[in-house]
Amino acid sequence: MAKETILSVKDLEIEFNLRGKTLQPIRKISLDLYKGETLAIAGESGSGKSVFTKSFIGMLDSNGTIKGGEIIFEGKDLTKFKKEKEWLQIRGKKIAMVFQDPMTSLNPLKRIGEQIREVIIEHKVVPKEQAKQRVIQLLSEVGIPDAESRYSDFPHQFSGGMRQRVVIAIAVACQPDILICDEPTTALDVTIQSQIIELVKKIQKELKITVIYITHDLGVVAEVADRVAIMYAGQIVEIGTAEEVFFDPRHPYTWALLSSLPQFGEKGGELFAIEGVPPNLFKKIVGDAFAPRNRYALEVDFLAEPPYFPVSETHKAKTWLLDPRAPKISPPDVIRRIKERDYWQSDGGAV
Amino acid sequence: MSRIEREPILKVEDISVYFKNGKKTVHAVNHVSFDIFKGETFSLVGESGSGKTTIGRAIVRLNQIQTGRIIFQNEVISGKISRTLHSKVVRKVQMIFQDPMASLNERAKVNYIISEGLINSREYKNQQELDDRVHHALLDVGLLPEFASRFPHEFSGGQRQRIGIARALIMKPDFIVADEPISALDVSIRAQVLNLLNKFKRERGLSYLFIAHDLSVVRFISDRIAVIYAGKIVELADAERLFQKPLHPYTKNLLSAAPVPDPRLAKSKVVTIYDPTQHDYSKEKPTFSEIEPGHFVYGNVAELEKYSKEL
Lengths: 351, 311
Ligand SMILES: Nc1ncnc2c1ncn2[C@@H]1O[C@H](COP(=O)(O)OP(=O)(O)OP(=O)(O)O)[C@@H](O)[C@H]1O
Ligand SMILES: [Mg+2]
Hints:
CATH class of the largest domain in chain A: Alpha Beta
Helix content of chain B: 25-40%
CATH class of chain B: Alpha Beta
CATH architecture of chain B: 3-Layer(aba) Sandwich
Number of domains of chain A: 2
Oligomer: heterodimer
Radius of gyration of chain A: 21 Å
Bound molecules: adenosine-5'-triphosphate, magnesium ion
CATH topology of the largest domain in chain A: Rossmann fold
Order of helices and strands of chain A: EEEHEEHEHHHHEHEHEEHHEEH
CATH superfamily of the largest domain in chain A: P-loop containing nucleotide triphosphate hydrolases
């Protein structure tokens, strides 16, 4: 199956200006997004997941600028866009985004149905007379019971999970090619979370869209992702299929993330914790950004930034450990146990 | 649970908390009972709004209860109590909150934040003792004593949560209500905080009421777990047993929805549905019954019979 690239990012660099000082949240990221896939982006808070993806729809905060690189979509370089008019052809229409807090995307004073209808009319999805009918259809497609009677409700009359469904309905109203979900379920209960994940999967299948799913929950990653990108300090440090990243991770940061999951911890024992804090992005980073927190760090990690080393055709990691000259280091025990699935405690499942 | 002496430190007996919402009365907590043993981590899980935090707040006397009573170290601590007992509860029962940022006074320096409880209860002899105890509390939670003169916003999320824990520990509590203490934290930092809570349990015999919605965390940290739905406990068991043999349909629903960090298993996950109208309690009233040693479920006779067959 040949993979068709729908969006291609090359050496993207983003800077923020904060009271005269510059901060570099995105440090040369390249990424090919494949048509129809679900790519999960995981990494700790501040690693740049939101900033990175917001740049695809021209929604960087006003103090942010793209310093280098390109974002190619439909033959155009989005980083060259100057006018809001150009973005309106992309944002919401071809690339849509769903955020953690549904209220950031909803107007509290407007009826739910009207909010969706406006989007549909603005983008001329269907003739005006059919717009209301289409809204009701959309609402029931995202699992709002009694869609017709709930059309005139206000956002506050909906629960958190229902609001997120409405936001998803708005996002997919124009049948976008790419749907970016930025922590859409972090604020929700587990049962609601699993329903929203199911909904995103269903939409992805039915509309055949490409999904970028941002989350810090590796359990959610395992559930949604075809491919996984692990971000650290403004870079993608490892990327591969979900199976490759979970069962054969190569970057010590990925090891650390997986090791710290309570699912893999031994009851009553110590849970693996990553020491230290992420690097200061105001300072120029020398070498591998993870080195100061990496118990497997080599001397070279403090001197030179590692390139990507391929592990397979679909899997690569940015760590000197993969250099043929590096000493052989085996991953921590937990990683082997994940693969062999013997973290299963009796028949209780892997929760 | 093997090493734990089964001596309750806290007894929650048939408590209810009602809130008036306009004309409606909301039964946030509806006749809930459980014991927490000395040196135990007892967790409450359930969806948001199910009453978890309200129970925690009732224990630390921030919410009034309308029925039942709460007993701590053999003394009734709910309702009207003496001043001395109240101040004992304020010292011995501490609460750690979800949002480390919101729960810390932004304008106060760390040393004041940590020592505030001591100062209010005048539990120290002189400035020297106060400084010493702040110093040790910071070391206890793995922070540098130099941090005492800094402000909260100069810390990372994990560090702020540790300040919150230091602030509770300095009171030398016997019991801690930890309400979603790690939900706002990153995976990597969560581990630090969980390890810390476990360390104090081991070293000082602290007991916890732990409130969380992340089931993997709850399974890791708890000795026993109570599942709460709409203000009622529907199931209670040893942590491992609950995950092995969930009986109540709501528990099944909750456990089946939890994310599984394994791409092979996760993609074949089946989530069971819970429909609360499935229970017909019009003729036969439900009870909270011990179905096997230490394992309690809420149901009527017919349901309980069905559950025992599943064991
Ligand atoms: N408008 C801004 N001005 C200055 N710095 C910013 C701005 N927006 C984000 N940043 C910084 O950029 C970095 C990346 O932030 P980003 O929001 O992308 O992280 P994230 O990976 O999405 O984190 P989280 O998991 O917490 O959502 C962080 O250091 C953040 O503080
Ligand atoms: Mg973000």
